[in-house]
Design goal:
The chain is an alpha+beta fold and 185 residues long. Helices cover 25% and strands 26% of the residues. The N and C termini lie far apart (68 Å).
Length: 185
Protein backbone atom coordinates (compact mmCIF):
# COMPACT_ATOMS: atom_id res chain seq x y z
CA UNK A 1 0.00 0.00 0.00
CA UNK A 2 1.44 3.41 -0.89
CA UNK A 3 2.18 6.15 1.65
CA UNK A 4 -0.75 8.27 0.42
CA UNK A 5 -3.34 5.58 1.13
CA UNK A 6 -1.75 4.75 4.49
CA UNK A 7 -2.15 8.39 5.55
CA UNK A 8 -5.92 8.08 5.27
CA UNK A 9 -5.91 5.02 7.53
CA UNK A 10 -4.00 6.82 10.25
CA UNK A 11 -5.80 7.50 13.57
CA UNK A 12 -4.82 11.21 13.31
CA UNK A 13 -6.70 11.45 10.01
CA UNK A 14 -9.82 9.82 11.42
CA UNK A 15 -9.87 12.24 14.38
CA UNK A 16 -9.26 15.24 12.08
CA UNK A 17 -11.88 14.12 9.56
CA UNK A 18 -14.49 13.50 12.26
CA UNK A 19 -13.84 16.97 13.68
CA UNK A 20 -14.46 18.56 10.23
CA UNK A 21 -17.71 16.60 9.80
CA UNK A 22 -18.89 17.61 13.26
CA UNK A 23 -18.02 21.26 12.57
CA UNK A 24 -20.12 21.08 9.37
CA UNK A 25 -23.09 19.56 11.25
CA UNK A 26 -22.64 16.20 9.52
CA UNK A 27 -23.94 17.62 6.22
CA UNK A 28 -22.51 17.88 2.73
CA UNK A 29 -21.76 21.55 2.16
CA UNK A 30 -22.61 21.20 -1.57
CA UNK A 31 -25.91 19.32 -1.65
CA UNK A 32 -27.00 19.59 1.99
CA UNK A 33 -27.65 15.89 2.53
CA UNK A 34 -26.75 14.43 5.92
CA UNK A 35 -24.95 11.31 7.13
CA UNK A 36 -28.16 9.26 7.29
CA UNK A 37 -28.64 9.82 3.53
CA UNK A 38 -25.10 9.63 2.14
CA UNK A 39 -21.51 8.74 2.95
CA UNK A 40 -19.73 11.87 4.15
CA UNK A 41 -16.08 12.56 3.41
CA UNK A 42 -13.61 15.32 4.27
CA UNK A 43 -12.36 17.26 1.24
CA UNK A 44 -9.19 19.35 1.13
CA UNK A 45 -9.89 22.54 -0.85
CA UNK A 46 -6.17 22.84 -1.61
CA UNK A 47 -3.15 20.57 -1.39
CA UNK A 48 0.34 21.27 -0.09
CA UNK A 49 3.12 18.75 -0.81
CA UNK A 50 4.68 17.38 2.34
CA UNK A 51 1.66 17.89 4.62
CA UNK A 52 -0.15 14.92 6.05
CA UNK A 53 -3.93 15.06 5.48
CA UNK A 54 -4.57 15.99 9.14
CA UNK A 55 -1.96 18.81 9.16
CA UNK A 56 -4.04 21.26 7.10
CA UNK A 57 -5.73 24.33 8.55
CA UNK A 58 -9.37 23.59 9.36
CA UNK A 59 -10.37 26.36 6.94
CA UNK A 60 -8.89 24.32 4.06
CA UNK A 61 -11.20 21.34 4.63
CA UNK A 62 -14.95 20.86 4.16
CA UNK A 63 -17.47 18.04 4.44
CA UNK A 64 -18.81 16.62 1.18
CA UNK A 65 -20.86 13.56 0.34
CA UNK A 66 -19.10 10.88 -1.70
CA UNK A 67 -20.80 12.03 -4.94
CA UNK A 68 -20.04 15.73 -4.52
CA UNK A 69 -16.48 14.84 -3.48
CA UNK A 70 -16.03 12.82 -6.68
CA UNK A 71 -17.35 15.78 -8.70
CA UNK A 72 -14.87 18.12 -6.97
CA UNK A 73 -12.07 15.86 -8.19
CA UNK A 74 -13.65 15.56 -11.69
CA UNK A 75 -14.18 11.81 -11.31
CA UNK A 76 -17.89 12.20 -12.07
CA UNK A 77 -19.40 14.22 -14.90
CA UNK A 78 -20.54 17.55 -13.40
CA UNK A 79 -24.24 18.42 -13.29
CA UNK A 80 -23.61 22.16 -13.51
CA UNK A 81 -21.12 24.58 -14.98
CA UNK A 82 -21.95 23.64 -18.56
CA UNK A 83 -22.45 26.40 -21.13
CA UNK A 84 -24.72 26.03 -24.13
CA UNK A 85 -22.65 26.74 -27.25
CA UNK A 86 -25.05 25.92 -30.07
CA UNK A 87 -28.24 24.16 -31.02
CA UNK A 88 -28.97 22.32 -34.24
CA UNK A 89 -32.09 20.62 -35.58
CA UNK A 90 -30.79 17.41 -37.15
CA UNK A 91 -34.11 16.93 -38.95
CA UNK A 92 -34.71 13.46 -37.53
CA UNK A 93 -33.55 11.21 -34.69
CA UNK A 94 -30.07 10.77 -36.16
CA UNK A 95 -27.83 12.10 -33.36
CA UNK A 96 -26.70 10.31 -30.20
CA UNK A 97 -26.67 12.00 -26.79
CA UNK A 98 -23.16 11.91 -25.30
CA UNK A 99 -24.25 12.50 -21.71
CA UNK A 100 -22.80 9.73 -19.57
CA UNK A 101 -25.36 6.97 -19.15
CA UNK A 102 -27.76 8.30 -21.80
CA UNK A 103 -26.93 7.35 -25.39
CA UNK A 104 -30.47 8.11 -26.63
CA UNK A 105 -31.15 9.14 -30.20
CA UNK A 106 -31.66 12.90 -30.51
CA UNK A 107 -33.11 15.31 -33.05
CA UNK A 108 -32.16 18.58 -31.35
CA UNK A 109 -28.43 18.56 -30.73
CA UNK A 110 -27.28 20.88 -27.94
CA UNK A 111 -23.52 21.44 -28.00
CA UNK A 112 -22.42 22.19 -24.43
CA UNK A 113 -19.04 23.06 -22.95
CA UNK A 114 -17.49 22.60 -19.52
CA UNK A 115 -14.04 24.05 -18.76
CA UNK A 116 -12.83 20.76 -17.25
CA UNK A 117 -14.73 18.32 -19.49
CA UNK A 118 -14.70 19.99 -22.90
CA UNK A 119 -17.51 19.73 -25.46
CA UNK A 120 -20.43 17.31 -25.60
CA UNK A 121 -23.44 16.87 -27.84
CA UNK A 122 -26.58 16.23 -25.77
CA UNK A 123 -30.31 16.06 -26.36
CA UNK A 124 -33.14 18.24 -25.14
CA UNK A 125 -33.72 16.15 -22.00
CA UNK A 126 -30.08 15.96 -20.88
CA UNK A 127 -29.52 19.66 -21.45
CA UNK A 128 -31.61 20.04 -18.26
CA UNK A 129 -28.41 19.20 -16.38
CA UNK A 130 -26.93 22.56 -17.35
CA UNK A 131 -26.79 25.49 -14.97
CA UNK A 132 -30.16 27.12 -14.28
CA UNK A 133 -29.28 30.11 -16.44
CA UNK A 134 -28.25 27.91 -19.37
CA UNK A 135 -31.38 25.81 -18.98
CA UNK A 136 -33.59 28.85 -19.53
CA UNK A 137 -31.37 30.07 -22.36
CA UNK A 138 -31.57 26.67 -24.01
CA UNK A 139 -35.37 26.60 -23.76
CA UNK A 140 -35.61 30.08 -25.30
CA UNK A 141 -33.20 29.16 -28.09
CA UNK A 142 -35.11 25.94 -28.78
CA UNK A 143 -38.42 27.86 -29.06
CA UNK A 144 -36.86 30.45 -31.37
CA UNK A 145 -35.19 27.72 -33.43
CA UNK A 146 -38.54 25.92 -33.83
CA UNK A 147 -40.22 29.14 -34.98
CA UNK A 148 -37.44 29.77 -37.49
CA UNK A 149 -37.58 26.13 -38.69
CA UNK A 150 -41.36 26.36 -39.10
CA UNK A 151 -40.92 29.62 -41.04
CA UNK A 152 -38.26 28.19 -43.33
CA UNK A 153 -40.09 24.91 -43.89
CA UNK A 154 -43.41 26.59 -44.73
CA UNK A 155 -42.44 29.13 -47.37
CA UNK A 156 -41.76 28.91 -51.05
CA UNK A 157 -38.48 30.37 -52.20
CA UNK A 158 -37.67 31.62 -55.69
CA UNK A 159 -33.98 31.56 -56.60
CA UNK A 160 -32.61 33.76 -59.36
CA UNK A 161 -29.73 35.78 -60.73
CA UNK A 162 -29.35 39.51 -61.23
CA UNK A 163 -28.18 41.13 -64.47
CA UNK A 164 -24.69 41.13 -62.92
CA UNK A 165 -24.96 37.35 -62.32
CA UNK A 166 -25.29 37.68 -58.51
CA UNK A 167 -27.56 35.09 -56.92
CA UNK A 168 -30.64 36.09 -54.94
CA UNK A 169 -33.70 34.51 -53.43
CA UNK A 170 -37.20 35.79 -52.96
CA UNK A 171 -39.40 34.61 -50.11
CA UNK A 172 -42.87 33.85 -51.35
CA UNK A 173 -46.11 33.19 -49.49
CA UNK A 174 -46.56 30.46 -46.92
CA UNK A 175 -47.49 27.07 -48.33
CA UNK A 176 -50.04 26.54 -45.56
CA UNK A 177 -51.85 29.84 -45.28
CA UNK A 178 -51.15 31.67 -48.52
CA UNK A 179 -50.04 34.65 -46.40
CA UNK A 180 -46.66 36.16 -45.81
CA UNK A 181 -44.99 34.56 -42.83
CA UNK A 182 -42.44 36.03 -40.50
CA UNK A 183 -40.39 34.13 -37.91
CA UNK A 184 -42.26 35.84 -35.06
CA UNK A 185 -45.76 35.24 -36.22
Amino acid sequence: MNKFKKSYQNENWHLFSNFIKKRDNYKCLKCGRNESEVVLQTHHTRYDPGLEPWQYPLSDCITLCKGCHAREHNLVEPTNGWTLVSLDDLGDLIGICERKGCGNEIRYEHIIYHPLWGYKSVGSTCVEYLTQEDRYLSEDILKLFKRISDFVNNIDVDYGRTKNNKSYLTLLKSRNSGKWMTPGG
